[in-house]
Amino acid sequence: GPAHLFRLAGKCFSFVESTYKYEFCPFHNVTQHEQTFRWNAYSGILGIWHEWEINNNTFVGMWMREGDSCETKTRQTKVHLVCGKSNKLAYVSEPSTCVYSLTFETPLVCHPHSLLVYPTLTEALQRKWDEAEQLLYDELITDQGYKKILKEIFEEAGLLKATEEKEAEKQSKKISLEFKTVEKCSKEYEQLSEEIKKLKVLLDQHGIAYKANSAENTSVEYVSHKLATAVTTVINGSKDEHLHG
Which SUPFAM superfamilies does the entry link to (predicted)? Predict the structure, then answer.
């Protein structure tokens, strides 16, 4: 995120409302402490630093997630960053069960460019963003496609956390990367084509004509599999005097 906000790291800011004391430690966590003499007074974590909230290509807040358990989910908190004369936690609410909202005032976000995402990215990611802008301008991608590219850029920069499905997809891509280049794909195709030729010759030797059903999947992998099955049948059946073509 914005480098000038890192000076807040290692500091904590408190806010007391009714019998509760809230404490926000930027880039660390948010906690809640019940100010009472009850024997079972609550004291726990409302969220741990997780990712940024980005709106209109601008940092607008910090998400603290994976806090203490709350029924079937965990507590989480969104911290809104607003301009203020001093660093202070100004307001706390709970808009929905176990989801909290904090307002943090700081002079560090008062400059109109202080929360722009673009300047915080590496040159490579900035170029990727520029290319996406050009594609959108040339109407080669839709607004939805543009937003998808931006989300991928933010995830790659570590500003947003990728979902579990996205992580699984990345792992899958890593495993199948060897087939992604044109050269390797062509080589694989040639090998499968040679295998098909050999299998067809073997079928011809046994007087069996192979015809692929046009309504079926006739990809190289599929045809190779069908031929291999047919050849296996021929070889296994060659012991029988009554071989049918």
Answer: Mannose 6-phosphate receptor domain
